[in-house]
């Protein structure tokens, strides 16, 4: 349920942000704004999932599904980092 809440809030935030910047001219300023926003949102989502995981570990309720979700999220995050670093080079 917590993962669904995080996903819903991310979808709302990214839709709101996209509506806010879609009429900006494309360029360095827009790209920088998008990058900073995505980094902030990603860090907040990871922090929320980390706190939820710690709470599950303390209560001994950590499940295999939650671990699988972490693996998928980490794989997607690492893939995105690799793509970003290749574009910079």
Question: Which terms summarize this structure?
Answer:
89 residues, mainly alpha, 85% helix
Gist?
This protein has helices at 2-21, 28-58, 64-88.
Describe the structure in your own words.
The structure is a single chain. The chain is an all-alpha fold and 89 residues long. The protein has one domain. Helix 1 runs antiparallel to helix 2. It starts with a helix and ends with a helix.
Q: Please indicate the count of domains.
A: 1
In the predicted model, the low-confidence regions spanning at least 5 consecutive residues are none
Number of helices: 3
Number of strand segments: 0
Rg, Å, rounded: 16 Å
Q: Proportion of β residues? A: under 5%
Order of helix and strand elements from N to C terminus? HHH
Structural class: mainly alpha
Quote the average pLDDT: 84
The coarse silhouette is globular
Helical proportion, percent range: over 70%
What is the CA–CA distance across the termini?
40 Å
Tell me about the largest β-sheet.
Answer: none
Strand and helix map with partners:
Layout: H1 2-21, H2 28-58, H3 64-88
């Amino acid at each position: 349920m917590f993962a669904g809440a995080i996903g819903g809030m991310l979808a709302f935030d990214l839709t709101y942000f996209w509506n806010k910047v879609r009429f900006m001219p494309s360029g360095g300023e827009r790209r920088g704004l998008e990058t900073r926003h995505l980094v902030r949102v990603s860090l907040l989502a990871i922090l929320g999932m980390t706190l939820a995981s710690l709470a599950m570990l303390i209560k001994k309720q950590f499940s295999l599904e939650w671990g699988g979700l972490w693996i998928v999220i980490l794989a997607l995050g690492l893939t995105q980092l690799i793509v970003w670093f290749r574009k910079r080079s």
